[in-house]
Each structure stands twice: as C-alpha cells, then as structure tokens.
C-alpha cells in the first residue's frame, strides 16, 4: 500500500461527530435542510449488533455534557442495507471499531466500498459496566494501536482517520498512528471520562456509571490536543469537541485542524435548527477568513 | 439535571395501566415529553397526562417498576422536551389504548373538544368519565364491552376543526386514510425508541426527523414525507423492526 496521504474532499470542512445523529436517513434529512456540513460520520460500526447502555445515557450538568451510549451498533448487514437503500449525496465517513484486533479489518473490508473514508474509533471512554473490551485498552497500548492501524491501512485504500483519545499520551499515539499509515488524526474523542452522582438518588446518574465529557467546557482540552499534535507532526487533523459557534471552529483551525466536527451543540435543537446552526458557523468562518480561503487559517496560531 | 418529585397516589386504571400522581406540577405544552428516570430501573420518555401525573402501561421491566411505586417514593424527570400540540379550540381527539394518555393534558387546555376512544375492552378506555365532562365521547371496543363493538377507525370520518391522534401506529395510520380534515390540521403524537431525548443520539429517527426534537407531534402533511411512519422503527441497536 503506498504511503501517499489520501484526502477527504469535504466542502465545507465541517462534519458531525461520530455517534451524533449517526444514521443515514438523518444525514439525508439534514442535507434536505441545507446543513452546511461537507460530510457525515456514521455511528461507530462494530463487528456485531449491540444495544450499548440503557438510558440514562446522557447527563447535562448545565456546564458540560456526559454521555455513555457505549457503542451501540446495528448488525453490519443492517448497515450495508442502509448504505444501499439510503444514499447520501455528501461523503460519508464510516466510523468503525472492533472488540478484537482482527475484527477491525473485517469490519472495514465489509463497509469500505460504501464510504468515502474510514475513521478508527480508538479512544471511546465508554463501556457497559462489567465489560472489558478492546476499546478500553487499545488507546493505551502502543503495540495494539500499531497493529490495529496497520491492519486497517491494509484493508482500505481510502482516507483513514485515527480518532484518538485526549485522555492518553496522544503524542505517542499520534506518532504510532501516522507511522502505521493513518492519513488523518481525529482529535479527539470525549474527555474524562467523568461521573455525576444524583444526590437525591445517591447513585451515579448514567447507567454506564461514567461517561465521556463533551461540550463548551471541554473545548480547551481538545484545542490543546490539536495544537500539540499539529506542532509535532503538521499532520491533517479532524478536530472535535465543544464547537458551537464559528469562533470555536476558527479556534480549532488556528490550532491546526483542517476539518471540524460538531456534536453537543446539536442538543435540544430540531433538525431544522441544527441545519441553521451549521450554516451560521460556516458563514462566520468564511466572513472571518475574508477574501482568503479558510484553509489559510489552518495552524495560524503556531508562530 | 433532574427535577425530583414524590408519588402521592398510584391509581390503577386497569390491570396493566396505572397513573402516578406527584406532589408537584410540571409545566409543559401538551404533547411535549419528559425523560422519566427511576434509579436502577432506567429512563423512558413520557408525556404527562396531568400537570402532576403520568399514565403508564406495563410493557417491560421499567413500566412494571412504575406499576409498583408507592406513595412516598420518588421519580426523577428532565424536560419538557420536543414539540407539542398547538392550543386551539375545536379539536377532535382520537385515542387508542394507553395513547389516550398522550391526549389527556391537551383535552383540559382547549375548548369544544370531542373524543373518539378505542381499546380492546372497557378497561382500556382511560379517563372515560373525566373526558365525558369536557365534551362528547364516543367509544369503540374490540369486545364490545363499552360503546360499539369494533375499532376506533369505525367511528370515522368525524367532524372537528383540528384532529389530535395518539395510539398504536397502525391505528394512527389507519385513521389518516379515513379522515376528511386537511392534513395540515391533523396532529399525531408518534413514538420511537429514544435514548438521549435531546437530539444527540439519533436513535428515534423517523425518516430522518428526530422524534425527540422535531416531534413527537407531527402533522399529517409532515408524515406524508416520512415513509417510515406506519412502516418501521429503529430498535435498541439501531436495527429496523417492522411496525
């Protein structure tokens, strides 16, 4: 497999974060609502169907959002049926995971014909209580990450994104992912994880006990991750985490991202309002860039 | 962020359906919903039947736990979420089974209501006396134990400036084919498997609309562009099941 970087053509350079909205008919509908998203990322597709955690799976503290969906996925056959019957005009990136190392390339080889790129979910902090899955260790295990990314690289010639956790030694993880053939780094998954206790119930709110942090308050965590990784590698970066205005998106571009993902900002909004928000973000980014293309903002904070 | 309330009464409506009354009221537009958490049992969406109460039918472990709640025990609610019914006079209400609960709050808030209620038997016709005090009630039961023997759709067409429908999805779809009101004046409260309730997870998608934030109330004209209505829904894993 040649090591030439493979590019995602996303116009505008905005996507939804994986796990958010996530089904193809929702992407179709957001397209009909003229969302200013250049592509869409599926919910993480795993080797077999699983429901993940039961509700409560989200908790809004008022300052930060916790979620613990824990990788629900319909069976791959159902995903393939959706890819065939629910065509999306914009590029769709398939987010994938495996429970065992050899499952990652298996999942990729089954879905890669239907997607414009593959995102490896290497840093999801959520799990069903009591379960030990590869997901909880792959981000912390350099050897395993090298193997997973390498197998993924061999399984697809399409753009490959290694989505990393901000909660680990992400510079080491980024180096391994790039060496093993990743084209993009996803920076990053949810932070923490955190835990919220309802004091009247005297127990954790989330069924998954703990959950990944997202939303405005955690943005500086992932901005630093993007900044650090860009400074070290100058690699193409998809940034996620706490974007709700055009200023936030520009901040990520300046830190070094070339594509920005949106997620928690969609909470409490109808699909029409979500689409309008994406347009406002994109219009603001362009206005700020003035006569130049927004790509000129990438890495602008690095002096 | 939940608001906690204490149960003051657990009223048995029929052997599988109960209404829980709280020590406080919640403010919501009729048709909006709350995510109701019972620690240890889980969390599910409910539209309130009363400002201080909800009606639930046993369908699984969570609703079985709601059936067992006693005065003094607590419930946790977050919301209200979603888009409810418009507050207009002259509604024709069509309710099927426990779906009648989804219309109860609206019935108190609008003028000149009329009701068409359906169920398997007399026990499924919720709030019959309360609703009869608000307006004309016509009933159809499958066993003929109350009203005419048959389905609620057998009572259609019927007059009314606007229509509010809540019940099993196949019943609602059947109603649409028999109503003569304009589709933009027919409002249906629909249900999908919800996880987050706030527009993030996407599991409650119906043809790409999110039932939690775009609905749960849709007009019949909107549903015309939602082919999954009456046809299929996504389950816990996201996989489709037929309706």
Brief overview:
The complex is a heterodimer of chains A (303) and B (243). By secondary structure, chain A is α/β, with parallel strands linked by helices.
List the helices and strands and how they pair.
The complex is a heterodimer of chains A (303) and B (243).
Chain A: E1 14-16, H1 24-32, E2 40-41, E3 58-60, E4 65-67, H2 76-85, E5 92-96, H3 103-111, E6 117-121, H4 142-155, E7 160-164, H5 170-179, E8 184-187, E9 191-195, E10 197-198, E11 203-204, E12 210-214, H6 219-233, E13 237-239, H7 246-255, E14 259-262, H8 271-289
Parallel strand pairs in A: 1-14, 2-5, 5-6, 6-7, 7-8, 8-13, 13-14
Antiparallel strand pairs in A: 3-4, 4-12, 9-12, 10-11
Helix pairs in contact in A: 3-4, 4-5, 5-6, 6-7, 7-8
Chain B: E1 3-14, E2 17-22, E3 33-38, E4 42-46, E5 53-57, H1 61-68, E6 74-81, E7 91-96, H2 101-109, E8 114-119, H3 128-134, E9 137-141, E10 148-149, E11 162-166, H4 169-178, E12 186-189, E13 205-206, E14 209-210, E15 217-219, H5 220-224, E16 232-234, E17 240-242
Parallel strand pairs in B: 7-8, 7-11, 8-9, 9-10, 11-12
Antiparallel strand pairs in B: 1-2, 1-6, 2-5, 3-4, 3-6, 12-15, 13-14, 16-17
List how many beta strands of chain B DSSP finds: 17
What does the overall shape of chain A look like? globular
Q: How many domains make up the coordinates of chain A? A: 1
The Cα radius of gyration of chain A reads 18 Å
């Amino acid at each position: 497999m040649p090591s030439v970087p493979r590019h995602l053509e996303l116009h505008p350079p905005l996507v939804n974060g994986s796990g958010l909205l996530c089904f193809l008919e929702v992407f179709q509908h957001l397209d009909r609502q003229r969302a200013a998203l250049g592509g869409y990322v599926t919910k993480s597709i795993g080797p077999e169907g699983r429901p993940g955690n039961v509700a409560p799976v989200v908790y809004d503290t008022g300052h930060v959002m916790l979620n613990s969906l824990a990788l629900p996925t319909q069976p791959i056959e159902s995903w393939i049926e959706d890819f065939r019957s629910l065509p999306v005009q914009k590029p769709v990136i398939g987010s994938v995971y495996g429970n065992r190392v050899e499952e990652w390339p298996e999942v990729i080889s089954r879905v890669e014909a239907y997607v414009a790129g593959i995102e490896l979910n290497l840093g999801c902090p959520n799990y069903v209580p009591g379960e030990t899955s590869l997901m909880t260790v792959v981000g912390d295990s350099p050897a395993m990450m090298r193997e997973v990314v390498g197998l993924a690289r061999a399984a697809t010639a399409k753009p490959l994104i290694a989505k990393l956790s901000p909660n680990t030694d992400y510079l080491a993880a980024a180096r391994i992912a790039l060496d093993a053939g990743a084209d993009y780094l996803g920076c990053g998954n949810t932070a923490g994880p955190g835990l919220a206790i309802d004091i009247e119930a005297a127990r954790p709110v989330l069924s998954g006990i703990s959950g990944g942090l997202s939303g405005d308050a955690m943005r500086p965590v992932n901005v630093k991750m993007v900044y650090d990784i860009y400074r070290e590698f100058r690699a193409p970066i998809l940034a996620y985490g706490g974007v709700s205005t055009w200023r936030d998106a520009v901040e990520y571009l300046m830190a070094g991202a070339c594509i920005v993902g949106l997620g928690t900002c969609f909470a409490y909004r109808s699909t029409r309002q979500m689409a309008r928000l994406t347009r406002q973000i994109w219009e603001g980014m362009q206005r700020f860039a003035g006569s130049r293309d927004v790509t000129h903002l990438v890495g602008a904070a690095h002096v | 962020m939940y608001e906690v309330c204490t149960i003051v009464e657990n009223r048995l409506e029929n052997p599988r359906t109960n209404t829980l009354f709280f020590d406080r009221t919640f403010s919501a537009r009729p048709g909006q919903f709350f995510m109701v958490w019972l620690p240890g049992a889980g969390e599910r969406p409910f539209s309130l039947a009363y400002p201080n109460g909800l009606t639930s039918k046993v369908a699984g472990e969570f609703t079985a736990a709601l059936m067992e709640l006693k005065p003094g025990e607590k419930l946790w609610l977050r919301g209200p979420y979603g888009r409810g019914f418009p507050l207009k006079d002259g509604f024709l209400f069509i309710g099927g089974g426990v779906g009648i609960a989804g219309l109860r709050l609206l019935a108190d808030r609008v003028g000149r209501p009329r009701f068409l209620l359906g169920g398997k038997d007399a026990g499924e016709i919720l709030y019959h006396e309360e609703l009869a005090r608000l307006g004309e009630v016509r009933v159809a039961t499958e066993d003929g134990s109350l009203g005419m023997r048959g389905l609620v759709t057998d009572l259609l067409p019927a007059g009314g400036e606007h229509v509010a429908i809540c019940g099993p999805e196949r019943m609602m779809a059947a109603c649409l084919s028999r109503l003569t009101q304009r589709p933009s004046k027919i409002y249906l409260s629909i249900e999908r498997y919800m996880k987050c309730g706030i527009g993030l997870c996407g599991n409650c998608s119906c043809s790409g609309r999110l039932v939690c934030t775009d609905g749960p109330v849709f007009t019949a004209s909107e549903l015309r562009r939602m082919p999954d209505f009456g046809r299929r829904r996504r389950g816990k894993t996201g996989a489709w099941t037929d309706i």
